[in-house]
Amino acid sequence: MKSVIIGQSGGPTAAINATLAGAISEARRLGAERIYGMIGGIQGFSAGKYVDLDEHIQSDRDIKILMQTPASALGSCRCKLPKPEEEPEIYRDIFERLNALDISCFVYIGGNDSMDTIAKLSEYGESCGSDIRFVGAPKTVDNDLAVTDHTPGFGSAAKYIAASVKEIICDSSVYDIKSITVIEIMGRNAGWLTASAALAQGADCGGVDLIYLPERAFDLEKCVSSVRELLDKKDTVVIAVSEALRNENGEYICSSGGVHAGLDAFGHKIMSGTGQFLAQYLGKALDVKARGIEISTLQRSAAHLASAQDIEEAASAGAAAVRAAAEGRTAEMSVIRRIADGDDYKYTIDTADIKSIANAEKTVPDEWIINDGTYVSEDFIRYARPLIMGEPDIIYENGLPVHIKIK
Amino acid sequence: MKSVIIGQSGGPTAAINATLAGAISEARRLGAERIYGMIGGIQGFSAGKYVDLDEHIQSDRDIKILMQTPASALGSCRCKLPKPEEEPEIYRDIFERLNALDISCFVYIGGNDSMDTIAKLSEYGESCGSDIRFVGAPKTVDNDLAVTDHTPGFGSAAKYIAASVKEIICDSSVYDIKSITVIEIMGRNAGWLTASAALAQGADCGGVDLIYLPERAFDLEKCVSSVRELLDKKDTVVIAVSEALRNENGEYICSSGGVHAGLDAFGHKIMSGTGQFLAQYLGKALDVKARGIEISTLQRSAAHLASAQDIEEAASAGAAAVRAAAEGRTAEMSVIRRIADGDDYKYTIDTADIKSIANAEKTVPDEWIINDGTYVSEDFIRYARPLIMGEPDIIYENGLPVHIKIK
């Protein structure tokens, strides 16, 4: 096998470096000449930025630390390549660089846009008779990629969210007074992460009371009534909301363009979060103590509470991508197939045509959203629970998880 | 030993239940007749709310799960008792209830206000010849209690903050663009938690660039200059700020009463956080992408990433309080004395007169705040590092840490 180059693209997750680690290990096993990493994705590579990963990742301990490092150790970019016929010089330049490094396998770890990059590079490669194989490995906390059962990165974020929600429920119920807590969770179009708040419920935790996903139009006054009813029966109401709730007209219920936005000290519309806004609104409408908690970027980079299942699958997906390229396949992405569910959960890694994945988006199935759009069904729990199982054995130094620093 | 009653008071921490567990175990070891828990602190107990802890906490596993449960398992209150001479009937009622349960030892776990409760109850007890012993055990994430070297709860919150800051730094530096991240941390008067962001720095992490504590007046324009200078040298600037920064006139730089507060959809002043405000301000002033991250209540209840050192000390402090009462002492609080520092850190538990603790407040020493109020010294690191060491072996079920449910 000639040399391999690996890149990371799009937003951070707790598992994207596990996929990098899996790809490195598999490339070594297959006898790759050298293993390179693009710095800053395809954008950085186009500007000549790359590293020799054989220098940076040597021992088994390096691999282990890489796997527990959150966000993209190689850096990332948000870059959609133009069509090859529109700006062929960009492609000529990239292929020159790849040939100069004697690359036969190009692995790109990312979400929708990254798979579009793989599709275009392989298309161009085919058109000019290149034998470089272009393969993708899936990554996104949002879990919105098509074809794959779920996406590496989601399980760890879901575990962190569910664990944090359990802790917030403990925290919010200590006083003997009425209160509302609104927890804002990531996911602009797909509600997978927000739905994960439902995993908190169990023998030791009553769970959240209401869950609002971006898949459904949000009705503010209906929400006020639901919370009022709950407060008649219990002291503490905890609500999970997507960061991007929209009303039936498609307008965000807050944030800069939102219909309820306020003005800041500069006279500009406030970029306050949905959770903060909703907490204020409910608190005033119902005259009850209310607070908003935004789990924020913590949820996508909390490698210290990663899911062992997710990390294992992330590494396997990276390895499978390299293997596919070594077998001569191109324009494919590794995908996870669920072959058994529940306590007997089993998965296998397969590959699929990149065109079926690029630019598609998978949202929470309509029938999994229940109670008039205020909760998720047992089907969701059955789907998500296996993905948050297990805790990796994290290496700590000076009281903190150790990370790797490459770029 | 006759019966023991234990209460929890004030805001949640990740370690307050470890103190409860330590008190229960020690009371059992000393042969206490029965062990009760007040529900909702002294306020709930005054209304007749308590449980038999021998029913709720039986096995070693129960103790272990109690120790990993965040927030007050017995519920809490924020209640300052009136002076005994002002409303003696409240005290008469409490003592009647205590005598009915045959209590000889009253343990109250809490912060400043809770120690004031202990001081008043023991004063009243002495005045009426009661032989009930009243002792306190310290608790607060804020670490602002006097006399004790540090306070149980602080170490775990500091560990979570430092680990999260490391993850945020990974997350914020993936793109090859200029950006500012402002992390808002708890602590209205004392900057101990905000200072803990400094613990993130190490061989694998550049750390935060600026730290602003509430102990110093905050100068917004000076902050803009500092960030501008940093952005000339590096892409990613990360700042840790206390939730309660005030300018030289003592006005909060944002929040409801703040000088820069905006108006919300109701025309009321916005309760936006310091971090969010500062991110918006810096982003606009310097024309750079900026975001605010509020670690929020997550930091005080993140038992999943507790410090083993903190949890051990918390349990010891609870045990010491019971022991002090058993030895006939009253109006005392268990305190932690540091007897060796650095890698050889050692502590011992002692007790101190409650009057030296109640209503006092300990802030970060002036000489530990350096670089013109924008960072903390090595003295702080030496002080705080031992307190975040070690990770408890957490029991997980269904992918999540298990908690105990008492009330």
Name of the CATH architecture of the largest domain in chain A: 3-Layer(aba) Sandwich
Instruction: Give me the side-by-side strand order of the main sheet of chain A.
Output: 3-2-1-4-5-10-11
Gyration radius of chain A, rounded: 22 Å
The coarse silhouette of chain A is elongated
The description of the largest β-sheet of chain A is:
7 strands, mixed
The tally of domains of chain A stands at 2
The largest inter-chain interface, given as chain pair and residues per side, is: A-B, 78 and 77 residues
User: What is the H-and-E element order of chain A?
Assistant: EHEHEHHHEHEHEHEHEHEHHEEEEHEE
Q: Count of helices of chain A?
A: 13
The CATH class of the largest domain in chain A, by name, is Alpha Beta
Secondary structure tally: strands of chain A: 15
Question: Mean pLDDT across all residues of chain A, rounded?
Answer: 94
Concise structural overview:
Two copies of one chain form a homodimer. With 407 residues, chain A is of the alpha/beta class.
